[in-house]
Amino acid sequence: MLPLKTGAFSAAIGAGLPVLPVVFQHYHFLEKGKQFEPATIRFRVLEPLTTEGLDKTDASSLAQKTQALMLEALKDISSRDDVHKKKED
Question: Could you please report the per-residue DSSP string of the chain?
Fold first, then answer.
């Protein structure tokens, strides 16, 4: 996962809105031709992260916190995917 850019976080802070992280599983179902094949897509909607009390100088730290939470969720989704694959084999 590449580092998150801070623009969306600055905008959320400026608007006083929470950040709502959504994590999708790896796109292993994409073929080399970038075409979708029938598949189940797993995703997780994380708890909203408040921007209350933050200013735009906090955008970078909020992005880092969000990324850490998203990576943890991605690992969980991926490990669950591995379990399902083993059961199917």
Answer: -PPPPSHHHHHHHHHT--B--EEE---TTB-TTS-B-S----EEEPPPB--TT--GGGHHHHHHHHHHHHHHHHHHHHHHHHHHHHHH-
Backbone angles phi and psi of 24, in degrees to 5: -110, 150
What's the CA dihedral at 79, 82, 84, 86 to 10 degrees? Answer: -140
pLDDT, tens digit only, all 89 positions of the chain: 889 999 999 999 999 999 999 998 876 656 566 676 677 788 999 999 999 999 999 999 999 999 999 999 999 998 764 544 544 44
The model's pTM: 0.78
